[in-house]
Give the backbone structure.
Amino acid sequence: MPDVVAAAIVRPRGASVELLCAQRSAPPRLAGLFEFPGGKVEPGEDPCAALHRELAEELGVSVRLGSRVRAPGDGDWPITSNLTMRVWLAELADGQRPRALEDHASLVWATLADAEALPWIEADRPILAAVARALEIGPEG
């Protein structure tokens, strides 16, 4: 069972795909860095339900979940020595516009190539590469 859940929220943009990148506002050691939006799974909570709850709280949106972005070994992503994160591809429900409501200073839609140039939380960098592979898009984004 993962400790944390997150979404790689994508949208088509012309011939490419854009990823929603969320810039942290806190804690101080992570402020200014980008991450995949999501949050902690409460005790006894289903991970998918936790992700829907977190995205509603943090961004004010609902999403359609796609496939999981699996870590090597077909599991969850290690984010610290004792925490793991489960990540899904997702799309916004029709007409939804995300807003930075909790925990984020800003939100940026970026091509995958542009997203790679952003300052990400180190644990999210391999997930970004896996998202690119899952979408079968090369570095040109």
Observations:
- Residues 47-59 form the longest helix (13 residues).
- Confidence is low (pLDDT under 50) at residues 137-141.
- The chain is about 20% helix and 40% strand.
- The first strand starts at residue 4 and ends at 13.
